[in-house]
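Milestone M4 deliverable, item 7.
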Amino acid sequence: MNFTRKTLLLAATLTLLAVLAGCAAKKGTGSYVVLLRDPDGNAGKVIVQSPQGEQTLTEVFKGAALDGKREPFFVMQDQLQRDFGAALAAMPLPPERFLLYFESGGAVLTAQSKADLERVLQRTRARPSPDISVIGHTDTVGRAEANKALGLRRATAMAEQLRQLGLQNTTISAESHGEARLLVPTPDETAEALNRRVEITIR
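Output delivered:
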């Protein structure tokens, strides 16, 4: 079975569970795979191959038997829940990403980002065993080496602030990309507010 790059990870997981559980979409279908949207709302393509045949899924909620012999079929919501409800409920929450921005030259959040920080805390607390990655970034004002250090100072300061706000028992890593990965491409020595940021990923 071949999966394109954009194929929903859930589809692969459901395929494995279907093989193990022998779920059926309707009488005589046997084990099958269903194409669903990813957390960003995108759907890719699934190619089901076997010695008996090949089918391609490009429509959301279309399913194909794992033997590849029969034409794809639509899987209704109630059938999806009956066959894969337990698997869907057991799926881990997808990673969530937040960008918080800084005043120029230091590790002080902008007023808007200070307000947005509460959302980061809420989403972290919604997870049973969260893991947080904080990556610091800068604009291109100053030397690259100094910006690498500034990015780390921002990431470290944010990690410490998260701990002080109640996440002291959460695993938090901090690192810096400095000016190497600009959100908004600019020439050197350009002050760009959107590049002065930390990228927080909650898993």
